[in-house]
Amino acid sequence: MKVSGVAYVYTGVLWLISFCSWSCHTHKSMTPEEVASSFMYALQHAHYDSAKHYATQDSYEMIDLVASIAESTPQGKKKIQQSEIVVQKVFIQGDSGYVTYLNNTVHTTETFPLVLEAGEWKIRFAHQLPVPDSSSAEQILPPADTSNP
Hints:
This protein has 149 residues and is α+β, with helices and mostly antiparallel strands. It is built from five helices and four strands, in the order H-H-H-H-H-E-E-E-E.
């Protein structure tokens, strides 16, 4: 009797592992546009951990900085949440590209690089990156290495 109970448990565990494996492989990766929209939505609504999901690991420090500024000034947080920000343009070339956001509230644009990491598109959110000229398809350069002053 004990042997058949253990067999049922093992069968159940194997079935669960198979199901989870199948569902993970059928999950569709997000498009660069979806990642860009989800990232900005998360930042706007103070979902900073969610924003990190859509960003490269080297962007976490900048996201934390935005979070601390927003949390320390209630007017700043309210202003961010009330901004009308839309994805204006996404340019992809191979495993990299960029996204340009339009802030309709203050009529400004910001551009951030996109990179493909482990099959998923991510935003590289950092202040030291150059903004590409949108009139041509130039190469996006990584941030300068500042580790050796």
